[in-house]
Design brief:
Shape of chain B: elongated
Number of helices of chain B: 10
Number of strands of chain B: 20
CATH topology of the largest domain in chain B: Rossmann fold
Distance between the termini of chain B: 38 Å
Largest sheet of chain B: 6 strands, mixed
Strand content of chain A: 5-15%
Number of strands of chain A: 5
Number of domains of chain B: 2
CATH class of the largest domain in chain B: Alpha Beta
CATH class of the largest domain in chain A: Alpha Beta
Number of domains of chain A: 2
Strand content of chain B: 25-35%
Helix content of chain A: 55-70%
Oligomer: heterodimer
Number of helices of chain A: 9
CATH superfamily of the largest domain in chain B: P-loop containing nucleotide triphosphate hydrolases
Chain lengths: 185, 366
């Protein structure tokens, strides 16, 4: 069964994070809990946007905190421990998976290596090559296809496959930046 | 209840972006203050600094008599209402409203008392058992307000709370928030980019642009005596018309295409301030552009005649855009006026109500 992973990180230490995790998503299974961070497994995506949940919780706890959601595909691209560390590096707010992965890979060289290894095991060489070509062509699909000597439709098909298999949309700027970072540093 | 004092408050983000600059203001106890401005002008950042969700780079913030800069958000006794009116989906209205108090370890009977009080104020008594899914948009927004009311906070901060509602509901909720404020009298700072909300709800309005306060005043002052070109253009629908021209020594406003005789009092002010022979910007609101005969008879020398470019029937009135020698001038005329695109139309500016701005520094002259 495909599961979403939700991360909640607060500035305050103590029992608050446990209470939040237990009350806000009672249907979620608590996967990890530290003094400031909780990781919940959710059977389906939250009904409202992350932005909405972030504001809702912030109005109750009256303090800065972070909330991040990983899609079923992307959550396994990197270890949970690394993701928690990445959240601590980000300004408080709400994040989708690609921005957290970006921060993680920017700040931790070991995580970058690990992420690359898992990505290459997960998808074919062609898919990775296509997503990278798009990133290096400033998201211009026609130019990327030309550089790869493939038809534009072939490239678009591969990009869709990349998204399906990784949960990361290579046609979004943040994913392009993430891939560029992974393979240029 | 509390008053709020900002002294030269400034916010610079890590990426060196200056979001708020030299913000000095006193918000009175029980006041309903609206901060309005375009996206990125620093209004939400100001609100978040009050809430303690953003650090203040320099300057001082006082909540009541307390120096609030170092106070963590949870100790500021402030309640926030945000743009999204999401609620916890598995909690009913009662639980949603009481959740913040539960996190603060309030006793059960106190939570019950406060939630019931807030529900009565907002007319939610019959909905307390309902889950969010069974509520309409307006009811959800009322619950979101209730979540703030139960806190009995000193100050309410509202960050565009109505912008996710449809137009009709927005008008209705606008009225409800004003009524609510009259009833509970909590000092409120309300942020919006919608100038209609600002005009209709505020005791006082703060207009911001690029992190700086442009003007602070009552809705009447802001509308009738805008401090500069930006405020004049930002407040009012349709927007104010602007025309550049020279103030001649004969007491006229002269452009390349026409010349208007200024009322003595208006010319006197401009002359006293040394604007004779200089180019200024004339601002005239669409409702001060007339197409009726009485005005023509009063100042026949100022009648202009140009072609209609757009005519929009709004119901009770028609907004017409006139091509005045390449510049667009909007007029709000009676809906019964029979004009169509391309028609010649005679009109006149009510120069008694005109606004004049310095061309260089864009500040108000008269």
């Amino acid at each position: 069964m495909r599961m979403y992973e939700l991360y909640i990180h607060t500035a305050r230490q103590g029992g608050l994070i446990r209470e939040l995790a237990a009350s806000i998503w009672p249907e979620g299974e608590l996967l990890a809990l530290s003094r400031q961070t909780a990781v919940l497994q959710l059977p389906e995506a939250p009904e409202d946007s992350l932005d909405a949940y972030h504001e809702l919780i912030m109005s109750d706890v009256s303090q800065p905190f972070t909330i991040a959601l990983f899609t079923p595909q992307s959550r396994s691209l990197i270890g949970r421990k690394w993701l928690c560390r990445a959240l601590e590096r980000l300004p408080f707010g709400h994040y989708a998976d690609d921005s957290v992965l970006y921060a993680l890979n920017k700040h931790f060289a070991n995580a970058r290596k690990e992420f690359r290894r898992r990505l290459e095991n997960r998808i074919s060489k062609h898919l990775l090559e296509s997503a990278l070509a798009l990133a290096h062509a400033d998201l211009n699909a026609t130019l990327a296809a030309k550089r790869l000597y493939v038809h534009r439709n072939t490239l678009l098909y591969r990009l869709r496959q990349f998204k399906l298999q990784t949960g990361l949309d290579p046609q979004r700027f943040r994913t392009a930046a993430l891939l560029d970072l992974l393979y240029t540093l | 209840m509390a008053e709020l004092t900002f002294k030269n408050v400034r916010k610079v983000f890590e990426n060196s972006v200056e979001a708020v600059n030299d913000f000095s203001l006193n918000v009175e106890d029980k006041e309903f203050l609206v901060i309005v401005g375009p996206s990125g002008c620093g209004k939400s950042t100001t609100l978040r600094m009050v809430a303690g969700l953003e650090d203040i780079t320099s300057g001082e913030l006082y909540i009541g008599d307390t120096y609030a800069n170092p106070l963590p958000a949870k100790d500021r006794d402030i309640a926030m209402v945000f743009q999204n009116y999401a609620l916890y989906p598995h909690m009913n209205v009662y639980e949603n409203m009481g959740f913040g108090l539960r996190l603060r370890k309030f006793p059960k009977h106190e939570i019950e008392r406060r939630v019931n009080d807030a529900a009565r104020i907002l007319g939610l008594e019959n909905l307390l058992d309902r889950r969010p899914k069974a509520l309409s948009g307006g009811q959800r927004q009322r619950v979101a307000l209730g979540r703030a009311i139960v806190r009995n906070a000193k100050v309410f901060l509202m960050d565009e709370p109505l912008s996710n509602l449809d137009a009709k509901l927005r008008v209705q909720m606008r009225g409800e928030i004003v009524k609510l404020h009259h009833r509970i009298e909590t000092t409120t700072i309300y942020v919006t980019h919608d100038q209609t909300e600002a005009m209709t709800m505020a005791d006082r309005i703060v207009v911001m642009r690029d992190g700086f306060i442009q003007q602070v005043g009552t809705p009447f002052e802001i509308f009738n005596r805008p401090a500069n070109l930006f405020v004049a253009g930002f407040i009012g629908t349709p927007t104010m018309n602007f025309l550049d021209g020279e103030i001649t020594s004969q007491g006229t406003f002269k452009t390349d295409d026409f010349e208007l005789v200024l009322p003595d009092e208006v010319f006197g002010t401009l002359k006293d301030q040394g604007y004779t022979g200089r180019t200024v910007t004339l601002g005239i609101r669409p409702q001060d552009v007339y197409d009726d005969r009485d005005m023509f008879d009063a100042t026949p020398e100022n009648i202009l005649e140009y072609n209609v470019e757009i005519a929009e029937l709004m119901g009770s009135e028609t907004n017409i855009t006139i091509d005045v020698a390449g510049r667009e001038v909007t007029a709000r005329v009676d809906a019964r006026t029979d004009v169509g695109i391309g028609d010649r139309i005679k009109f006149i500016f009510d120069l008694e109500n005109a606004h004049f701005f310095d061309k260089e520094n864009e500040q108000r002259i008269n």
